Structure formats: structure tokens, C-alpha cells
Amino acid sequence: MMQAIYDRLKDRFQLGALDVRSRKGLAFVDLRREFLRPVLTELRDVEGFTHLILLTAVDWIEDERFQLTYLLNNRQKNLDLGLRLRLDRNLAIGETIHDLWPTAATYQRELREMFGIAFPGSPRVDEEFILEGWTDMPPYRRDFDTLAYSQQTHADREGRETSDPREFMKQILYPKD
Amino acid sequence: MKHMDPNFRKDTKTEFPQREELKPRKVTTPDGQVIDIEPLQDYFCQEPPKVHQKSYFKIVEDFYNWCRAESLWILAFGTGCGAIEMRPLMTPRFDAYRYGIQWRATPRQANLLMISGYLSVKTLKRAIRTYEQMQGPKYVVGLGSCTINGGMYWDSYNTIKKLEEYLPVDLYIAGCMPRPEALLAGFMELKKKIKAGNAEGANKYAEKFDWYKANQKAVIKDWDMPDYNW
Amino acid sequence: MSIDWPRIGYAALTLFIVINYGMIMTALVRKIGARVSGRYGIRIYQNYIDLVKNIALRSKITHGVMYYLGPVFRLTGGVGLLLFVPTIYGSAMWSNFSFAGDLVLALYFVFFGTLGMALGAAESGHPYSAIGITRGLSQVTVAELPLALAVFAISLQYQTLNITDIVAAQQGGIFNWTLFTNPVATLAALFAFVGTMMRSPFDVVIAPQEIPIGPPTEYHSSYLALMQTNRVLFPIAKTVIYMNLFFGGATNWFEFAIKVFAIYMISVLVGVVHPRFRVEQSITFFLKWGLPVGVLAILLV
Ligand code: SF4
Which of A131, A144, B180, C205 measures 20 to 30 Å from C126, CA to CA? Predict the structure, then answer.
């Protein structure tokens, strides 16, 4: 079923290869930026993907890219389709889709705060979402080191020990090796 | 072991801009007057906390302390996972009421603040406000390893590690999370401490007020409240 | 006018007895509630500890004069109510300041406290206080309606507004009680009784676990102690009125204790088995059930 939908859309929107994961009815597909809106509109209005489950981002710092994932759901046919879109990491500006799904505005606000991806035109996108009074770089970017930040901000208590879980269990279970 | 970037430096220069609603401004009143408003001065009281003396007679103070210990009113304010372990205390199985422990819905009437678990910086702000609105003598109990040394949020960018740097803690109850039995044991310890007259957290807070405020302001960057909220 | 010192002394003593009785009884009632839900419950002297604790708090803040007056009004309501009705019938010592027409005054006092409270709490400027007051006042108003009607009914029946006379008319055997001579009025009044005792199912106004705890939100330390005193005094005073009007009054302290406890238990028993009504639900309840019974009582006399 997913394949049929994919076949209908593939050529018109120059989609990447269909990437089927873990279970039937869940697939991901790469998308070119200029086709984002037409594809989403088509999926929503024609193919029955009426529900935006989530919009999230991944920081591919090695490739200098942010990946936005739009996860859509077709309730009638029980299909989940993830659309993956890559943005330039140094010029992180996404396209707002709050007019397609109003909930997207909240996700975009979160991404703006946690990853620093701008969504011009999205309502209230520049307001604080979860963090309050945050002045450092967006904390979900991978070059933000939360351990280092935490140690430079909050003092550790003396005597705290940390063990590597793997080494620790190995010592307990297989002390001879 | 978690990898840490040795070159990472946190941004210490950027100041958080003052919030719009806290800036001094001119307001036109309904009858047409134009008045200056300075929210931080006008809306809040600026008075610092006072150190309160004990009763003059030791026997009276001892009696009062006994009453305080036997009538602990907890503020129903849950900060982290630990809050879930407080509720069973009201149930028939643990029944904390028989020890004179009760829950109150407002900080004015409560005198025991339980910090039940990890405290994000954002919640810390509310916890401070709440603590300051309570009437002394008041007590703080930190619940779980998160309040002691950060617990499993030891590397989180947004949770504090040592609670006693921000509020005068009387007692910690260790565990992740502590069982209700541990809480009851903790309450008994607290009672002993109060009866012995050692739980003077409110006065300690007033004495070392500047130190506490400095610590609090070091992590709460948008300080949008008065220094003391009585 | 000469001041009648012994009478004032007895009035003070009445207050003292009733407050202590109230302290113990409310604790006992909470204990019963706890036992019903399978808990051990609070200690029987817990109320005293809480009171001393609140008085012993070292810091307090105020929100102006009205804020002070709130608890004071409220306590005045309770004390006034108690002192202007005869506590023990037929005893010069314990009749206190009752006089002809005291029934009207008593009705007035029932409402007075809540009103004063409203003024005081409004002064504190706490938004939840305002919510609490609105809810409390609207509920108390509708709940009092059946009582007012019932009181009209029995004052018609006995042709007097003096509580002592009403009690006198009920002496001489259990079947002279209003409970049996005018059951409909009694029923109407009991609606009001259950409704204004601030016990479940009509206690949403002051439920301590609700976030808008109601009018007392801002009150603490000694103010709260005053209100606690009133909390134990007021229900007893109210119960005394009901006892005098409908259950034949009491001729000695022992009878007083038993009867008050028994009447109080009506609301308790209703309370422990019923969940709370929302305010608008309870208002409809009173308009639908309480009010017609009250009207019926008047019509039947
Ligand atoms: S100590 Fe454990 S249970 Fe308590 S707040 Fe921290 S993580 Fe949660």
C-alpha cells in the first residue's frame, strides 16, 4: 500500500528511495526542499495522511546538515510516513507549515529554541518555549557539550563516583576476564 | 565514561535582556493621568528577610518546637519524579496523618517544603518564590539523589546539583526514588531535629541571604522577581 | 445599665467548654472518617497542637485592616451565634444572652461570618481567594434558603421568635420535639444543615486539597489560628440552634454533648459516603430539593 502511494508521488516530486523500517506501514523517504509543501499538501488532502505525529530534527554535525523529520499518519489505512529533509547547518532556516497543521507551530517553536532552526512566519516562534532565560547556544546542537556546561555551572559534590556500566557489570559478573 | 569536550566553554558573556513587562514605563490611568511605573519597585516589596529571635524562655521555646514538630504541614508542590512517592503517604497503608503530618494547598499555611526530586533551573525559580512565601519557622527536605548531587541528571545542562546552595536544607532523604517508608523515617528524623531546636533554616536563610541570592542568581539568568518575596 | 458580671463569666465559661468540646469532637469526627477509609487517623489532640503551632509561627504578614477583620468577623459570628442562643435550657447560668426575637439574630449570625471572611480575603488580593468566596457565598446562600423557610414555619407554629420559648414548647417527652410535630420543617432545615456544615458532599469551597483552597488561601499563623478556633466553634453553635429548634434542646451539659454529637454525625455520615458536588451542582440540588420542602413546610403549618 505504501509502495503504491510512493509510486504515485515518486516522479512528480523527485522523491528519494523508499526506506521501509522495522514494520510494515512505517517508511521514510528523502525529500527535496522545494517540494516540501506540495508533497505535504498532496499527502494530507489526497492520500489521507491527515495527522502530523511529530516534527523533529537531527543534528548531523559531520555532514554540516540538520535533518528535519515530518512524521505523518494515515489513520484509515494505518500507515506512517516520515519525510526527511536536509537543511544546511550553518544557514538553518526551515519553511513553516503551521498553515497546514496548526500544531506544527509548537514543534517549530521547540526546534527554534532547542536547535536554533529558524522558521520565519511561524506564530510566536521566537518566544521562549521550555527554557527560561537561556543565553547559551541551543542545547540540542551536538557541539553543545552538556556535561562540560553542567560542570562549569553547577558544582559537583565531593565523593561522587561514576562507573562505566559496562566495565562495572563486567567486574561483577566475570571478574576473571 | 562519557566523553567531554575539553574545549567547550560556556557562554558567560551574554546577558539575558530584561523582560518587557518589567521595564519602567509610563501608563495612562483610567482618569487620564499619566504615571510612571517601575514594576520591580512598585509591584513588589523589597524588604529582606529578618532573623527572628527564639522565645525568651527556653521552656516555652521547647514547647513550641514540640508543637511544630508534631504538626508538620507540607506544601503540596512536587518538582520531580519523587512527588509520586508522597501521595501514598496519605493512603491507609502509610497514613502519615497519624504523625501530625498534613498537606496544605497554599505556601502561607505550610511550613515544610519538600523538594521532591530533580530541580530544573526553571522550577528552582518557583521553588524559591514558594519557599520565601512560607512563614517561618520553615523547613526544607530534599528528596532523592537528584537534590543531593544531581543523581542521574548529573550531566544535565538544566538541573541543579546541590540543593543546599540555593535553599537552607534541613534534611536529605537519599534514594532514587526513596520509598514511602524512607520518607516516614525522614520525617521522624526531622522531628527530632526540630525538637532539639536545630532546625533554624529560616534564620540561616536570613543571615546568609546575600550568599543564597548570589548562588541563585548565578543559575537563574532572567531574574524577574524581587529579591525576597515574603 | 449595670453590667451583669457573673453572666459574662458564665458566657466565657460556655465558650471555653464549647471550644474544647469542638476541638475534641472535630478530631474525633476526622478519626471516624479515617477509620471508614481504613486509616488510623489523626491524634485526638492534634487540633490543639496545630493551634499552638500556628500561634507560635514567628513571621506574619498582613494585607491591611480588612484582612485582620476577616477572621475576627468570622469568630464574632461564631461567638455571637453561640452566646445569643440558650445553650442549656432552663438554667439561668447557661442561657447566656438569649432574648425575645433572638431567632432572627441567630439567623443573621449564621451568615455574618462568611460575609466578613469574604471582605477580608478580598483584601488579600489573592485571585484564588476571590474564586473561593464566590463559590462559598453562592453555595451558602442557597443552602440557607430552606433553613430560613423552616424557621418561618416553626415560628408560625409556635407563635414566637424566642428560642427559649420554642424549646420550652418542646419539653415533656420526645414526641413534643419539632422533629415529630413538624417533620417537614425539620427535613428542610436538615438540608440546610448538611449544606452549610462544610462537609462533603458540599465542602468543595474549603477543601484543603483543592488548589483554590477558598477564602483562607492567604491566611496563616495567628489569623489561621483564629479561624481554626472558629472552625470548631461555629459548627457547634450552629448545631445548638438546630438542637434547640428541632430536637428539644438540652437541659444539661451531658445531654448537650450527646445531642450535638448525634446531630453533627448526620452531616458526617452523609459526608463520608458521598463524593463532592461541584458548586453549581449543589446549588441546583438545593433549589430542586431543599427549597420545595421548605415551601411545603410553610404551607403545612
Ligand atoms: S532521585 Fe531519581 S526518582 Fe528522584 S527525581 Fe532524581 S531521578 Fe527522579
Answer: A131
